[in-house]
């Protein structure tokens, strides 16, 4: 089956869905944005991301590391120190994520207005 601009093959659809499942969840995006600025320790990330539990942060970091987007470095010190940073592959994700962040900031008020208008209409 050939793929045109209006069709997505099953194989392409699975690949797109797989990537979007990872980078499309809110915790992954927030972590990538924070690590795009600099290396962070676990507790710095935890304090910086409102609403994320330690368990969810751990799971998300592990998945991002498994996907090759985040590098975890353990330093042999007392107490042990663990740093997280974006890999080269993870840095390539900054461009689309930053574009999404810019769009969200630019249109946040428009979306809030649309929600209020919609809710008033359906109430």
TrEMBL record:
It comes from the Bacteria. InterPro entries: HTH_HxlR (IPR002577), WH-like_DNA-bd_sf (IPR036388), WH_DNA-bd_sf (IPR036390). Residues 14-112 form the HTH hxlR-type domain. The keyword Lipid biosynthesis does not apply. The keyword Transcription regulation applies. Keywords: DNA-binding, Transcription, Transcription regulation. One of its GO terms (molecular function) is DNA binding. PANTHER family: TRANSCRIPTIONAL REGULATOR, MARR FAMILY, TRANSCRIPTIONAL REGULATORY PROTEIN. This is Transcriptional regulator.
